[in-house]
Design a protein that fits this description.
13% strand; five-stranded parallel sheet; globular; 8 helices; alpha/beta; single chain; 175 residues; 5 strands; Rossmann fold
Length: 175
């Protein structure tokens, strides 16, 4: 990951509007799509179990590998989630965090400012790759906030407002 342009992270629990923001931000800045969703779609397509609700360890390994490949080849300024999210997922699942995550040089890869999309019941919905119940999302949100703070990131909470207002807010802080 040498000579890598640092990325701004948009994170939060499932169903908080992160992908909508990334898709809108793409009109202004280069963005990296969420790797987790790509992994889940591919695992479902091939009848494998690398999903957070079936085999969190396989899911973690796949997301880590593909994210590293994409980070190395991607000129994005903003990314949907980060590798640190995997630590929160594993914690909620009560699984051990692998050393490659514990020793990951997060601050070499990501900007210190992290945009956090809070859980938002009114916009949450399940889909083919988002099967979690809303209560799970609340637990994951707590773990995400804990891990980002523990790793020294500055959390910038996004307001529960329109996607366009959220995009304007983010662009004003990163450009």
């Amino acid at each position: 990951m040498d000579n890598l342009q640092k990325k701004y992270i948009i994170t939060g629990a499932p169903g908080t509007g992160k992908t909508t923001l990334i898709n809108l931000l793409k009109d202004s800045v280069p963005c990296m799509d969420e790797v987790s969703r790509k992994v889940i779609i591919d695992e479902q397509k091939h009848g494998r179990h690398g999903m957070p609700w079936l085999d969190i360890n396989r899911f973690t390994n796949l997301v880590y590998k593909i994210t590293n490949e994409e980070l190395s080849n991607n000129k994005a300024l903003v990314c949907d989630r980060s590798l640190l999210d995997l630590e929160a997922y594993l914690t909620v699942a009560e699984k051990e965090i692998p050393n490659y995550l514990k020793t990951c040089p997060y601050h070499e890869v990501y900007h210190k400012k992290v945009f956090f999309a809070p859980t938002w019941f009114e916009i949450y919905c399940k889909d083919g790759q988002r099967l979690q119940e809303f209560d799970y999302c609340l637990k994951l949100e707590k773990a995400l906030l804990e891990y980002y703070k523990k790793r020294g990131f500055d959390i910038i909470m996004l307001s529960k407002t329109s996607p366009l207002k959220r995009v304007e807010f983010i662009l004003n802080l990163i450009l």
